[in-house]
Amino acid sequence: MTDVAGQADEESDGDRRRFAQYHFAVNNILHIYNRMKKLSLFVISLVICMVGLAQYRPAKENLNARKQFQNNKFGIFIHWGIYSMLGDGEWVMNNKHINHEEYTHLADGFCPSKFNADEWVKAFKAAGARYITFTTRHHDGFSMFTTAESNYNIVDGTPYGKDVVKALAEACRKHDIGLHLYYSHLDWQRLDYPLGRTGLKLGRPTDRQDWESYFSFMNRQLTELLTNYGKIDCIWFDGWWDHDQDPSFDWHLPEQYALIHKLQPACLIGNNHHGAVNQGEDIQMFEQDLPGQNTYGLQGDASISELPLETCLTMNGDWGYSITDKKYKSTEKLIQMLVGAAGRNANLLLNVGPRPDGQIPVEALERLKGIGEWMKVNGETIYDTRGGMVAPRDWGVTTQKGDTLYVHILNLADKALFLSVAAKSVAKARMFADKKPVGVVKANDGVLLQLPAVPTGVDTIVEVQLK
Ligand code: GLC
């Protein structure tokens, strides 16, 4: 028994030892596992942080494109789509609560018999514009280009059957003018679009919303736009604000921007979100107001960034064709907006809303012609310049190219103009128009330019040579 008992004791000692060893090993494994778990969690969060904080580094060609964009100074915005047929602006579907299915029948009748991409681009170029921005797909969701993503497009869905983006891309290449593409984030037609604050009265079912599906649709379309039409100089986003009342809504912009920059690194990205610029954006955009102004109330708290700037502006009060809106700004006013933009280091993107037949309204053509005539004579003081060393004033603005400061007097009732530039840095000054000398008198903290007469006309330009 004893033996048996002794044996039993030895066995239980051995068991205890084995158990203790086993316990020790398990503890060690658990400890290592926990350490590993903490470490991997740490590594994962580190990676997430790094991705989140990763600074967007624009490619060299992108930085060059930004300079080119700033040199260009003047572009033409074109709002044209099946909405043009209703002659009531591009928001007509939303504003008139047009049923989403009924609206699609507009496409069945869209046949712009007078559309001629070459004529358009020639008129824009003659106006002095160096790029166009075309609405490839506006909020109504209709694609003005051929797309494998939906039949709701100009090639498959209209009797016209031709790709106007292709025609415009060819005309732009032929006439050496840049091509920018407007693309709406917001969509009033697709059922997978996650509804925001607009387009809620169009009879759409609300149970088919699917962000993943909509996001990949947009990215596939953007891929088409950036692969099928040659060099695209800018993607111009709009509609972000449809979800601005839901701070948790995530448009996944970094992923979309990265896709664009991967497909065409030089392609500039701008987003008309009216707010401060986001990572991945290459230009900052302003709507209806010059940077620093906010008469329209759209600028929110957007501070002016270091990025190239652009202000878009309607010629009358509408973007899309309006059959009743004849409140066109005068040619003089439009020239002053262009000069005012340049003096604020910004480009002007001036809008035209072609008619459904494809013709540009005559009022717009007249103004384009007038701007073109002015630019032919004065373009030297606008193109390739940057906002001048004297900030915008009530009397006007300055632009600058190297040592030449162009003083644009837009509004002055006196024969002399005080310029806050140290006298010792001014070599001489002359009228830009007839090169007649302008007296420069030293004054406190600046100089007084003695003009030959009280300035009249759209823009009196003095060319100041700096030392
Ligand atoms: C606004 C409008 C849109 C227009 C755009 C142009 O965002 O919603 O219709 O295309 O401005 O800047």
TrEMBL record:
One of its GO terms (biological process) is glycoside catabolic process. SUPFAM superfamilies: (Trans)glycosidases (SSF51445). The record marks C312 as: May be important for catalysis. Gene3D superfamilies: Glycosidases. InterPro entries: FUC_metazoa-typ, GH, Glyco_hydro_29, Glyco_hydro_29_N. GO terms for cellular component: lysosome. The chain crosses the membrane at residues 39-56. Keywords: Glycosidase, Hydrolase, Membrane, Signal, Transmembrane, Transmembrane helix. The keyword Repeat does not apply. It is an enzyme of class 3 (hydrolase). Residues 55-380 form the Glycoside hydrolase family 29 N-terminal domain. GO terms for molecular function: alpha-L-fucosidase activity. Pfam families: Alpha_L_fucos. Its EC number is 3.2.1.51. Signal peptide: none annotated. PANTHER family: ALPHA-L-FUCOSIDASE, ALPHA-L-FUCOSIDASE-RELATED. Belongs to the glycosyl hydrolase 29 family. Alpha-L-fucosidase is responsible for hydrolyzing the alpha-1,6-linked fucose joined to the reducing-end N-acetylglucosamine of the carbohydrate moieties of glycoproteins. This is alpha-L-fucosidase. It comes from Segatella baroniae F0067. The lineage of its organism: Bacteria, Pseudomonadati, Bacteroidota, Bacteroidia, Bacteroidales.
